[in-house]
């Protein structure tokens, strides 16, 4: 892919003049593409070479949203603005009002749209601006995602009974392995230092508390009776009775207890998935896709949030990829789907 079209460092030394003045823009660029300044005469000329615009001009009475002023097709708006013909003037305009420090300074979508619509019009102007900003490298690298990380929820079939399904979160496999040859890291959300002392209590509390997903107390699922907690009132006299039916009763009780959580788990999964998937993208990446990778060790607040661009060179699993930096080919990394974002390809407008 030709990356030169994506990312252009442009600096406008002298910015564009106001409407109906001659526009003298001098541009410094370190890439091939640059903004070519245009005059209103050139816009008029280009208008007359544009078939769509000519059709409107020749039938202006039936196009109530337009009018002609000084031989230029204008869109009725507040203020009225010239209609920009197809071609590179359109992309130059977006570049000026988004990329350049003095006019746009990489402000977001709504501000850029507003700024350009105050000055120009063309059919599809909003989607063109959307695409331009979505494909802007600097914006992608620096703007935090205001949406959930990508990837839709994958449902796990509820188990038929206790101890039939154990899950834990882990990270890996990592290459190279650790000094001890370990490939995986187990993850825990709790940040406690005295885990050894805390763990039995945490486990006990977890097991004796009602679980939102199963709507059951884990202790009861195993022992068939309610747990007695240290602070619970207890009978001063404990009698141990022998019940010949105990085993049958326990089995009946347990089978009721294990059937009910299955339905509850399914319902909880449905609710959770609905919440999880809402507003979440589920991108599918292919080899050669261009992506950005979340900066791992941000040293300060203003470091870029995403590094790159990288190209996907290998897929190792559903969520694991090998990526190579577009320019520094020796920079190769293994990444997981949650730390990458797609870099949109910029549509050609000329
Ligand atoms: Zn930008």
Automatic annotation (TrEMBL):
Pfam families: Integrase_H2C2 (PF17921)
Domain of life: Eukaryota
GO terms of molecular function: nucleic acid binding
Domain Integrase zinc-binding: 88-144
Protein name per the record: Integrase zinc-binding domain-containing protein
Organism in which the protein naturally occurs: Rotaria socialis
């Amino acid at each position: 892919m030709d990356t030169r079209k994506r990312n252009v460092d442009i600096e406008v030394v002298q910015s564009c003049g106001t409407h109906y003045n001659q526009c003298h823009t001098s541009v410094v660029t370190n890439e091939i593409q640059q903004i070519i300044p245009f005059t209103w005469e050139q816009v008029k000329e280009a208008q007359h070479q544009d078939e769509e615009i000519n059709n409107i001009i020749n039938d202006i009475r039936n196009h109530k949203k337009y009018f002609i002023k000084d031989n230029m097709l204008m869109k009725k708006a507040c203020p009225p603005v010239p209609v920009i013909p197809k071609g590179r003037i359109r992309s130059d305009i977006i570049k000026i009002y988004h990329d350049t420090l003095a006019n746009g300074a990489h402000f977001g979508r709504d501000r850029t749209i507003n700024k350009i619509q105050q000055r120009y019009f063309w059919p599809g102007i909003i989607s063109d601006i959307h695409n331009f900003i979505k494909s802007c490298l600097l914006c992608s690298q620096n703007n935090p995602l205001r949406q959930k990380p990508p990837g839709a929820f994958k449902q796990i079939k509820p188990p038929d009974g206790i101890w039939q399904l154990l899950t834990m979160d882990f990270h890996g496999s990592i290459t190279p392995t650790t000094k001890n040859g370990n490939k995986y890291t187990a993850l825990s959300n709790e940040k406690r230092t005295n885990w050894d002392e805390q763990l039995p209590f945490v486990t006990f509390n977890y097991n004796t508390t009602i679980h939102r997903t199963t709507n059951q107390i884990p202790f009861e699922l195993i022992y068939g009776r309610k747990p007695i907690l240290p602070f619970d009132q207890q009978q001063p006299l404990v009698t141990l009775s022998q019940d010949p039916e105990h085993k049958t009763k326990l089995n009946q009780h347990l089978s009721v207890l294990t059937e009910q959580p299955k339905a509850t788990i399914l319902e909880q999964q449905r609710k959770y998935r609905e919440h999880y998937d809402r507003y979440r993208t589920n991108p599918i990446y292919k080899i050669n896709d261009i992506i950005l990778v979340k900066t791992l060790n941000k040293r300060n607040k203003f470091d870029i949030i995403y590094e790159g661009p990288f190209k996907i060179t290998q897929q190792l699993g559903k969520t694991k990829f090998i990526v190579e930096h577009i320019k520094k080919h020796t920079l190769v990394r293994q990444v997981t789907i949650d730390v990458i974002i797609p870099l949109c390809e910029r549509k050609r407008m000329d």
